[in-house]
Model the fold of this input.
Amino acid sequence: AELDRRQAIVFVHPNIHKTSDEIGLQTPGFLLEFLCDTTRASVNLILTGTMERYPRIRWILSHAGGFLPYVAWRISLANALPEFQEKAPQGVLTYVKRFYFDTALSPSRYSMVALKELVEPSHILFGSDFPFAPAPVTTLVCQTLAENSPWNEEQQYGINRGHALSLFPQYRLANEQVTPAPIYEGETFSNRMRRRMTKPVAAFAERIRNR
Done:
């Protein structure tokens, strides 16, 4: 609640957990398990109702959100499940589109095109993973983002600098004009009332269907 009151910006980075170690995959964690961890965390933020309860927190997902852009529509099938109506009343994709995504270790055209289809360019931020990624990897990330990008020149500048300044305007130069990042709100009162009025009808239909 305090983070929401402060309109905090929270960076979400994955880790290797005990359950990941127990799988025994013979691959470095950053190649696969990190992406799974970020995806689970982001979906958890949505389906537990955290993003609805605390809409003014801005979340930055590392590594282009893991697998979230690829599975976003599939996760949105939760909209049809009664147990998530109160937790994600504005629809799963509404919350997905509120995330910010960095490009760390994910600058390929495949990843960027998926993000371009899913979110506004203003929600994509430059990331390199340096110093945790070795310097040669960081160099390759930067080169790939520059050479294979689906973005126009203005959008590329935004990813490299401008979009981050919208979140952190205190770091702008004296001559830079910055548009502040939006602050989101929870479900409106009218929508909440409408949804609750139709809930008994939906429950009755579900009972009929299950007979």
In short: The beta strands are 9-12, 58-61, 100-102, 124-125.
